[in-house]
Amino acid sequence: MHRLSGKVAIVTGASAGIGRATAKLFAAEGAKVVVGARRQAELDSLVAEIEADGGSAVALAGDVRSEAYQEALVAAAVDGFGRLDIAFNNAGTLGEAGPSTGVSEAGFSEALAINLTASFLGAKHQIAAMVTTGGGSVIFTSTFVGYTAGFPGLAAYAASKSGLIGLTQALAAEFGPSNVRVNAILPGATETDMFRAANDTTEKRAYVTGLHALKRAAAPEEIARSVLYLASDDSSFVTGTATLVDGGVSITRT
After folding, report:
1. What is the DSSP pairing of strand 8-12 with strand 32-37?
2. Residue 93 lies in a domain
3. 221 CB neighbour count, 10 Å cutoff
4. How many domains does the chain have?
5. Is 202 exposed, middle or buried (0-12, 13-18, 19+ CB in 10 A)?
6. Hey, is 25 helix, strand or coil?
7. Of 18, 63, 112, 225, which one has the greatest count of Cβ atoms within 10 A?
8. Could you list the pLDDT tens digit for every one of the 254 residues in the chain?
9. Residue among 69, 157, 207, 229 flagged as catalytic
10. How far apart are CA 78 and CA 117, in angstroms?
11. In angstroms, what is the C-alpha Rg of the chain?
12. Burial class of residue 214 (count of CB atoms within 10 Å of its CB; 0-12, 13-18, 19+)
């Protein structure tokens, strides 16, 4: 039994990492998927992989900061597949890092634009489409950073990602009566390009993974399975949550 049979989903940040893994899992579970990211070639290869496995997907490259692009993703779902049931707003950036007294206004604003404002713009149009067909599920990728733990040098990342939790709660309360559920996942360390770039030495990797109760980073596919839960009817009474998928980093002191 496919858990997303008959459903239509949008996944942003789908060219790599958690987004790519989630798009493939959604398709394997029966959803028709619209995949978005900046890199066309990577999206095209993802669509080819999904179709080779018997799934259905279309790609639309663009910048999530553009409201016109967010509208176009929704149109691709509605015009191409007839409806929109699920949206995984996953595109994000680490942003300008380093001592906060040296972070530029432009760098801070860019993190907010990509991680927070773009997610709002996506949800704005996604929810409008979902309401017309009886509801749906919107999911944001936040982080434990700035929620259960603070890290030096990551003010822009923490502030922008924490903002998604407030957005999640506001939208969940506003659109619950329309059967639109809104949740955020808060992953721990995950084997993505962003994680590898930030932890580019054996020492850095060992330190970060050691902060987790499981003493390792997640595979993107592990995070994707939690997204699938929030996307599916298995979580039909779950909304407004900040769901930790963090390998125990939030509770570990050893």
Report:
1. parallel
2. yes
3. 15
4. 1
5. exposed
6. helix
7. 18
8. 799 999 999 999 999 999 999 999 999 999 999 999 999 999 999 999 999 999 999 999 999 999 999 999 999 999 999 999 999 999 999 999 999 999 999 999 999 999 999 999 999 999 999 999 999 999 999 999 999 999 999 999 999 999 999 999 999 999 999 999 999 999 999 998 888 888 889 999 999 999 999 999 999 999 999 999 999 999 999 999 999 999 999 999 98
9. 157
10. 23
11. 17
12. middle
What residue type is 94 in one-letter code?
Answer: L
pTM: 0.97
Give the CATH number, domain containing residue 121: 3.40.50.720
Concerning whether 147 is annotated as a catalytic residue, the answer is no
Q: Which amino acid is at 80?
A: G
Q: Considering only CA atoms, which of 73, 213, 88, 191 is closest in space to residue 142?
A: 88
Closest CA to 88 of 171, 20, 188: 20
| Nearest CA-CA partner of 47 in 55, 39, 80 | 55
Alpha helix stretches (DSSP H) within 150-218: 155-175, 193-198, 202-210
Task: List the domain range (segments joined by +) for residue 136.
Answer: 8-190+219-245
